[in-house]
Amino acid sequence: MKEHYNIIENVAVFCASSDGVDPQIFQTAFKLGEELARRDIRLVYGGSKLGLMGQVAEGIMQNGGFATGVIPEFLKTKEVVHKGLDRLITTADMHERKLSINELSDAFITLPGGFGTFEELFEIVTWAQLGLHRKPVGLLNINGFYDDLLRMLKTMTEKGFLKEDNLEILLVADNIEELLSQMHGFKPRPVPKWMNKNQP
Ligand code: AMP
């Protein structure tokens, strides 16, 4: 039987708009951009030149890849927006931006980040859980950054708020190669969201 294989041509990357303090995380953001360029995968992201976002964009641009930024009008200031992108889409607000990023991408990768990154990650896994898309969602756990979050997700399953099957929507690896390989092989399974006794 043929192995499942997703064609990934455009990947959305969610990550910090700050540099952080861990050089390994900072450098891996650039490396992800580099690796996407090498594999001819286009980047879709928030369009900023700041923090890890800027590093992923630089990594892909400096290596001949293609980057699309999707930025809401109110963030499109000189201090924030990356001026060298191949394509820049301006949206009216954050909601429109996220819809646009989702539409333009066939897969999602989350690197370390803060509130903004978490919000984007959890929205996209929530949409997957509800069957609104079937695209692979990857979490790059650089240097153990996400160990505590992964423990929390395990607690959610143990306490009966998250199904194991739905937890498996989130693909996790500590290096880029392994994560992309899992994402290529991801096969979505339809899983009913709820686990109450009196509901479907
Ligand atoms: P955070 O993890 O809180 O730094 O937020 C990063 C995420 O939120 C990115 O993936 C962006 O989509 C969005 N975001 C936050 N700050 C900015 C910014 N200055 N410019 C563009 N997008 C941003």
Quick take:
With 200 residues, the protein is of the alpha/beta class.
Helix proportion range:
25-40%
Q: Distance between termini?
A: 32 Å
Number of strands: 7
The strand line-up of the biggest sheet is 4-3-2-1-5-6-7
The helix count comes to 7
* Sheet with the most strands, sense and barrel status: 7 strands, parallel
CATH architecture: 3-Layer(aba) Sandwich
% residues in beta strands: 15-25%
N-to-C series of helices and strands: EHEHEEHEHEHHEH
Mean pLDDT: 94
Unreliable stretches (pLDDT < 50, length at least 5) are none
Give the helices and strands, then pairings:
Elements: E1 10-14, H1 23-38, E2 42-45, H2 51-61, E3 67-72, E4 87-91, H3 94-104, E5 107-110, H4 115-129, E6 137-140, H5 147-158, H6 164-167, E7 170-173, H7 176-185
Helix pairs in contact: 1-2
The structure holds adenosine monophosphate.
